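Researcher: Let's do a round of design. I'm pasting the structure tokens now; please hold your answer until I've finished.
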């Protein structure tokens, strides 16, 4: 990197925004050292999947918006690559920073690398070993071609060593998403979101579902919805519905069935602050998200992950997370176990302390020529 290096930060989908915000803020503390550009690929585009996060996280407007939208994996990945390649040619950044594991992450990493632009991957090294997950492909490809790999946990370092990635490219820095969480936690003290849903702190569950493995197969999805409706008789369930799940609920005619259950509280996707409030005060978090497993861990709220595996094993090791698959019976018994209150004490993983972005920027400063 040259001095006053030009850094392009990429965000595309909802789980990227809370990772990019602390990085951008930290980099902009050093205007003589770094010129930053925020690029939004437009993989997520609905106001409640994107704009609300810019507002809640106080992110500046993106410098460039690629507007790629939805599509098949090949279409979406290709559209991002074509659009981002043009940006790279026009703006010639010294470093492209990508975060997470969505299609935009991999697409921008490939486009930049083929133009011989250095790539840094934040949240490197996570592995589910499940090749049916598009994210696993995105993770492996992005890590393989990245010049700098910033990892959130020791298991991620070990995965990268095993894959033969040179140790001098790997930096254990902690979890950047937790920087956003800890910065915004004080704003959730008022509990407004709970009043809106008519729920009490400690006496409801938060539910999110969007993995194709849970949502796209009608039988699996119906099974999960049925067990949620049943459990909502014991504990209200707040469900901000992802667009993928909304489509399936409508297709299967399940909206009416859910509406007839008083305990099920469906809503459109909610913003960052509302979601943080809902998660912080929940008795249990039911999810198939990656990020939510980590947020639950730091919030000290038990998490039940409705997947066959997790790329975030540290959340299990510290006692926060149980990976239970997607069969109604196992989901039901996991929720009952949490409600009985016999779970382990939850610990916070190393370096999930709100200072990850600062550590990353320190490393970038150290690596800048002439520093
Ligand atoms: C994507 C990521 C996933 C991440 C998730 C968070 C990939 C492969 N997947 O999954 O890793 O956990 O985001 O939400 O990158 N849609 C809208 N409005 C939007 C965005 C999407 O209606 O603003 C609908 C579209 O119909 C689209 C569907 O949701 O076809 C799925 O969107 P897509 O970005 O393809 O995947 P996600 O399931 O959101």
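Researcher: That's everything. Go ahead.
Model: Designed sequence:
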């Amino acid at each position: 990197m040259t001095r006053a290096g030009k850094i392009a930060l990429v965000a595309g989908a909802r789980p990227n925004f809370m990772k990019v915000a602390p990085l951008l803020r930290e980099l902009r503390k050093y205007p003589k050292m770094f010129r930053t550009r925020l690029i939004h690929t437009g993989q997520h585009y609905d106001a409640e999947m994107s704009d609300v996060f810019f507002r809640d996280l106080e992110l500046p407007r993106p410098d460039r918006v690629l507007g790629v939208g939805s599509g098949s994996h090949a279409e979406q990945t290709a559209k991002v690559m074509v659009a981002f390649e043009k940006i790279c040619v026009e703006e010639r950044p010294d470093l492209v920073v990508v975060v997470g594991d969505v299609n935009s992450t991999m697409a921008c990493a490939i486009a930049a690398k083929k133009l011989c632009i250095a790539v840094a991957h934040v949240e490197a090294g996570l592995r589910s070993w499940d090749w049916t997950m598009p994210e696993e492909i995105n993770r492996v490809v992005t890590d393989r071609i990245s010049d700098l790999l910033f990892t959130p946990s020791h298991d991620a370092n070990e995965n990268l060593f095993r894959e033969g990635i040179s140790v001098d490219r790997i930096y254990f820095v902690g979890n950047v998403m937790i920087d956003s969480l800890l910065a915004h936690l004080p704003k959730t003290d008022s509990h407004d979101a709970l009043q809106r849903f008519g729920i009490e702190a400690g006496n409801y569950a938060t539910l999110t579902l969007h993995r194709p493995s849970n949502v796209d197969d009608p039988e699996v999805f119906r099974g999960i919805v049925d067990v949620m409706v049943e459990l909502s008789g014991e504990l209200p369930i707040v469900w901000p519905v992802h667009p993928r799940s909304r489509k399936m609920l409508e297709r299967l005619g399940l909206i009416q069935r859910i509406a007839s259950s008083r305990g099920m509280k469906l809503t459109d996707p909610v913003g960052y602050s509302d979601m943080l409030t809902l998660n912080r005060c929940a008795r249990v978090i039911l999810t198939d998200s990656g990020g939510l497993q980590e947020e639950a861990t730091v919030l000290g709220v038990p998490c039940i992950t409705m997947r066959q595996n997790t790329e975030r094993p540290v959340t299990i090791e510290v006692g926060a997370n149980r990976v239970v698959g997607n069969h109604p019976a196992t989901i039901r018994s996991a929720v009952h176990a949490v409600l009985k209150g016999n779970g382990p004490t939850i610990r916070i993983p190393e370096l999930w302390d709100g200072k990850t972005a600062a550590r990353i920027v320190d490393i970038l400063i150290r690596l800048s020529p002439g520093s």
